[in-house]
Write a structure and sequence with these properties.
By secondary structure, this protein is of the alpha+beta class. The protein folds into 3 domains: 113 residues, Butyryl-Coa Dehydrogenase, subunit A, domain 1 (Orthogonal Bundle); 110 residues, Beta Barrel (Butyryl-CoA Dehydrogenase, subunit A, domain 2); 137 residues, Butyryl-CoA Dehydrogenase, subunit A, domain 3, CATH 1.20.140. The chain is 46% helix and 14% strand. It has 11 helices and 8 strands. It has a 4-stranded mixed beta sheet. Helix 3 packs parallel to helix 7 and helix 9 packs antiparallel against helix 10. The longest helix is centred in the last third of the chain and has 29 residues. The structure holds flavin-adenine dinucleotide (FAD). The site of flavin-adenine dinucleotide has 21 residues, from strand 1, strand 3 and helix 11.
Length: 396
């Protein structure tokens, strides 16, 4: 999509040198327990920040690099080359929370949270979905009632990724039950250590506890933790969600590139023409995806896009499923091993990590808004096709 100019090339070489000297070795995607992964990622985030390479997209006044988009893309390319860990467990904080605070937060909110996020001291989750509000997010019913300088919150969220390890939550609540549904929603920052919160992890088919139900009983949230104005939350959460389908995909696509490189090594070990051809065709597709991501981000940076990130999300999630399915066929029976047995083997190549990656790949056709909804968005807002009949706007 773009060629390195001499300045960008120098930047690339400096970062490459840093990665070669500092990136953790022997680390593999999906090959450790969530707790170990968290510690690997926290330590890597701190190393990046200490080396002056942390939070590339943040402004320098908040401790970020203020890197250009081209520099951020270069860093992701170099991360993939070096097999550096993506700091996904801090992704909600570094990407979603930062984007929301920078655009809509108060200076006090930014100063309270951004430094601790950078130190790896704050983990965040997102409390948007509810049992009756997924695709139709505006139907959410968790209630917040104003009481002086506080809101009192009652209700339930579901599918909150990492809530069991999180300190804070980006929360959507209903403050006006009478207004048209997307006009009565408020966005607040919730301290998950507050009294009245019960977090129940949901065990996924991976065997891990990736997401949670969160219950609120008379939880007190100061009005100073509100983002934007009361009842303006719908508009604000669109920024958070667009981030999830755009910039957030940089490390995710980086992970897929790493898996594609691993598939190349697998094909080499198998040594057949067929395996080589399969690996080559996925290499071509992952390259196309990376180009599409670069293009979407560059367009977004110039304010020319938004909804096109849905194309990216659909393509990424379905490619990831196809790639990991093909890898399972290459690996054969070992792919059926599940964590932790999958990683006790001596072999570097044949283990169960592809099974983990494959199961995990299915989540992305739902997370961040299902692919059916993304196709509706592409049809209506990108291609200009007639709108799906519905009483009022409800697409997340
Ligand atoms: C791995 C993972 C992580 C997640 N993390 C979080 C999180 O951190 N925080 C959070 O708040 N939520 C999270 N979610 C929830 C996610 O955003 C919702 O699951 C998603 O928006 C779909 O909502 P739903 O599950 O209620 O399905 P529903 O909305 O009930 O949809 C059920 C099915 O109907 C289809 N459908 C619904 N409406 C339409 C329509 N208008 N046209 C065509 N098809 C339609 C959907 O595509 C889907 O296939 C996560 C989900 C996953 C899988």
């Amino acid at each position: 999509m773009f060629e390195d100019d001499p300045e960008l090339q120098a930047f690339r070489l400096r970062y490459r040198e840093f990665l070669d000297a500092n990136a953790p070795r022997g680390w593999r995607v999906n090959a450790t327990s969530p707790d170990t992964t968290l510690e690997i990622q926290r330590s890597w985030l701190r190393t990046l920040v200490a080396g002056g390479w942390g939070a590339a997209h943040w402004p320098t006044e908040y401790g970020g690099m203020g890197a250009t988009l081209a520099q951020q893309i270069v860093m992701q390319q170099e991360n993939a080359r070096a097999g550096a860990p993506a700091v996904t467990m801090f992704g909600m904080a570094l990407v979603h929370v930062a984007a929301t605070l920078l655009e809509f937060g108060t200076p006090e909110q930014r100063h309270e949270h951004m430094p601790s996020i950078l130190r790896g001291d704050e983990i965040w989750c997102q409390g948007f979905s509810e049992p009756g509000a997924g695709s139709d997010l505006a139907a959410l019913s968790t209630r917040a009632v104003r009481d002086g300088d506080n809101y009192i919150i009652n209700g339930q969220k579901i599918w909150s990724s990492g809530a069991n390890r999180a300190d804070w939550c980006l929360l959507l609540v209903r403050t006006d039950p009478i207004a048209v549904k997307h006009k009565g929603i408020t966005f607040v920052l919730l301290d998950l250590h507050s009294p009245g919160i019960e977090i129940r992890p949901i065990k996924s088919l991976l065997g891990s506890q990736e997401f949670c139900e969160v219950f609120f009983t008379d939880v007190v949230v100061p009005v100073s933790n509100r983002i934007g104005e009361e009842n303006e939350g719908w508009h604000i959460c669109q920024t958070t969600l667009a981030t999830e389908r755009g910039p957030y995909l940089l490390p995710v696509v980086n992970k897929l590139r790493g898996e594609c490189a691993e598939m190349g090594r697998l094909a080499e070990a198998i040594g057949t023409d067929h395996a080589a051809q399969v690996a080559a065709s996925f290499h071509a597709e992952v390259t196309i995806l990376s180009e599409l991501l670069d293009r979407t981000l560059i367009k977004a940076a110039f304010g020319k896009s938004g909804n096109e990130s849905s194309i990216l999300k659909v393509y990424y999630s379905e490619l990831s499923q196809r790639l990991t399915t093909a890898a399972l066929e290459m690996v054969g029976l070992d792919a059926q091993l599940s964590w932790p047995e999958a990683f006790d083997l001596n072999s570097d190549t044949f283990d169960g990590s592809w099974g983990m990656s494959h199961y995990w790949s299915w989540s992305w056709t739902i997370a961040g808004g299902s692919n059916e909804i993304q196709r509706n968005i592409i049809g209506e807002r990108v291609l200009g096709l007639p709108r799906e009949p519905r009483p009022e706007a409800k697409v997340r």
